[in-house]
Structure formats: structure tokens, C-alpha cells
Design brief:
Blueprint: H1 10-63, E1 66-67, H2 69-75, H3 109-115, E2 159-163, E3 169-176, E4 179-186, E5 213-214, E6 217-218, H4 227-230, E7 235-236, E8 242-252, E9 271-280, E10 293-301
Antiparallel strand pairs: 1-2, 2-3, 3-4, 4-7, 5-6, 8-9, 9-10
Length: about 300
């Protein structure tokens, strides 16, 4: 008789297949988890890198410009609890015959616009006739007390106002709908008085031919092709995957150091402390139950030196 060949029984095959399926399931799950974990690490690394690049972009913008005290004074202004000269309900005695009709009672922006930042250093705020020949370097009429009205802005800002060294281009960085936007504006001294009024910046909708100038050429033409009409648009500079939850600025000093030469605390080179918090947008798409979050803080110093008003 020929010997019988050894073979697996049906039961043994079923048991072997069951064990194999268990091992394969565990192996595939481990591989899948490893792939997901690797993908999450890569996404998180890219998220951190993009956030740092964004902070670097803001820092470079600060370094290439300086604090725009004139615009910050107009948009933010001094603390009206300390500086009562811009309260809309006041008669404004002692700062000339400025009309108070266009003052905004909430922010007093209208009256600050009527006066202007640099002009406050030439007025006596203690009452009486205005003396436009006075320049006390940010001090009150006593010559020793810092005038709180010479502060261009107060508190932590959610918008940063910058201007270049030639004072013909300015920028605004702010948080808008969970994205950081950069606004750049061109200006031209249309009336040749060595200063740029608010109406001479290209963002104004009613700008005239002389309100925007590049070199000696006044830009004209179709609004769709006009650089003056497009340069002022707010451009998102934060990547789409970043959800910006917080952006704050602490510029210093709070007074223009060249105008407030009488105040020791103002004799500091302009710099800005920046705090930025971002999280990953649509984090569930990358298997995150909680969105990755990062907070970056740094201080950027302006590389514009000297008195840009001269």
C-alpha cells in the first residue's frame, strides 16, 4: 500500500485563515496608523513653518518701515481720559478756531483729523490764545510735564500703521476675518507743501490726478489698470490653511521721538512687539481632533533711521 500524504483538515485551514486574518488586520492597521501619524507630523511641521514665515513677513515689513505716528494718531489717538482736548463735547478753547462740527463723539477722529499729529506740538492746551510758534517737544506749557495729548496711540493695538523713510508709501497690517491683511498705499505731495494730507493718499476714492504720483509721472487711465486704484487693496498675506485667532501689536515709543524731543521716555528707536496666534484650519481633514495651535512673539526694530520728517 502507498502511504497516505499528510494534509490539512478543513478545520485546520479555517483556524489558520482566522489567525492569518487577525495578523493581517493588525498589520494593516499599524501601517495605516503609521501613515496617518506621519502625515499629521508633516502637516503640523508645515503649519509651524508657514506660521513662522508669516511672522517673518510681518517683521520684514516693520524693519523696512517705521511707525506712522500721524496715521496712528488719526486712527487710534491718545487716551481721552488723560487727554481731554480731543473730547468731542469740549469747546476746544486754547487750540485755535478749529471747528468741532465734524468730530466723531465715539472716537474723536474727526477733530484729530482737523488738527493733525505734528500740529499738537505747536499749540498751548492750557487755555487762552493759541501760540503756533511754540514747540515744547511734547511737554505742557510749564516746560516739564509730558503732555498726554502728544501720545499718538495708547494700549495694545490690533492694527499696525507703518510708513517708509521717504514718507510717500505707507502700510497697514491688521487681522480681518481670521486672516492677516496688508494694505499698501501710495501718496504724493500734490500741493508741494512738504507734507501729505489724508486726501493725498491713493486709497481715497475721490483722489484727483495729483493724488498719486510715481516719480514725476502722475498715474492716469482706466481704474482697472490704474496702480493707484489697485495698490491700496487689502491683500491677505496669511496662508489659507492658517486660521489667525489673535494678532496684537505694541509699538514703542508712543510718541514720535523727533517731535517729542523734550520727553526722555520717547527717546527710543521705534520698534514693535508682535504677538501672533494661529491654528490649523479644517483640522479634521488631517485627522486632528483638536486643531494644532502655535503662538509666536517677537520684537522687530525699524531700520529707518533719522528724522524722516525732514
Amino acid at each position: 500500500m502507498k502511504p497516505k500524504k499528510a494534509a490539512f483538515t478543513l478545520l485546520e485551514l479555517i483556524v489558520a485563515l482566522a489567525i492569518a486574518s487577525v495578523f493581517l488586520t493588525v498589520a494593516f492597521r499599524t501601517v495605516g496608523q503609521s501613515y496617518t501619524a506621519q502625515k499629521r507630523i508633516l502637516v503640523q511641521q508645515n503649519f509651524h513653518t508657514e506660521t513662522r514665515f508669516l511672522m517673518d513677513r510681518i517683521v520684514q515689513t516693520v524693519r523696512n518701515n517705521t511707525i506712522d505716528y500721524d496715521r496712528a494718531f488719526l486712527e487710534v489717538g491718545p487716551d481721552t481720559t488723560a487727554c481731554t482736548h480731543f473730547v468731542a463735547e469740549q469747546t476746544q478753547s486754547g487750540i485755535g478756531n478749529l471747528s468741532n462740527n465734524n468730530a466723531d463723539a465715539a472716537t474723536n477722529r474727526g477733530h484729530r483729523k482737523s488738527l493733525g499729529y505734528s500740529e499738537i506740538f505747536y499749540w498751548i492746551f492750557s487755555g487762552g490764545a493759541a501760540d503756533i510758534t511754540r514747540n515744547m517737544g511734547g511737554l505742557k506749557a510749564d516746560g516739564s510735564t509730558p503732555d498726554p495729548c502728544s501720545i499718538a496711540f495708547h494700549g495694545t493695538l490690533d492694527t499696525l500703521y507703518l510708513i517708509n523713510g521717504d514718507r510717500n508709501a505707507r502700510s497697514k497690517i491688521t487681522l480681518d476675518s481670521e486672516s492677516i491683511t496688508l494694505q499698501q498705499q501710495l501718496g504724493a505731495d500734490a500741493n508741494n507743501n512738504d507734507t501729505l494730507e489724508e486726501s493725498e493718499w491713493s486709497h481715497d476714492t475721490d483722489w484727483t490726478q495729483g493724488a498719486c504720483k510715481i516719480g514725476s509721472y502722475f498715474v492716469q487711465g482706466d481704474p482697472d489698470e490704474n496702480i493707484c486704484e489697485s495698490v491700496h487693496d487689502d491683500q491677505a498675506i496669511s496662508p489659507p490653511r492658517l486660521k489667525i485667532t489673535n494678532l496684537t501689536f505694541e509699538p514703542a515709543p508712543t510718541r514720535d521721538p523727533f517731535l517729542a524731543f523734550g520727553i526722555e521716555d520717547a527717546q527710543v528707536h521705534p520698534h514693535v512687539f508682535i504677538s501672533l496666534t494661529a491654528e490649523l484650519r479644517d483640522h479634521a481633514d488631517f485627522s486632528f481632533s483638536v486643531p494644532p495651535t502655535i503662538t509666536l512673539q517677537t520684537t522687530a526694530s525699524s531700520r529707518v533711521f533719522g528724522n524722516t520728517r525732514q
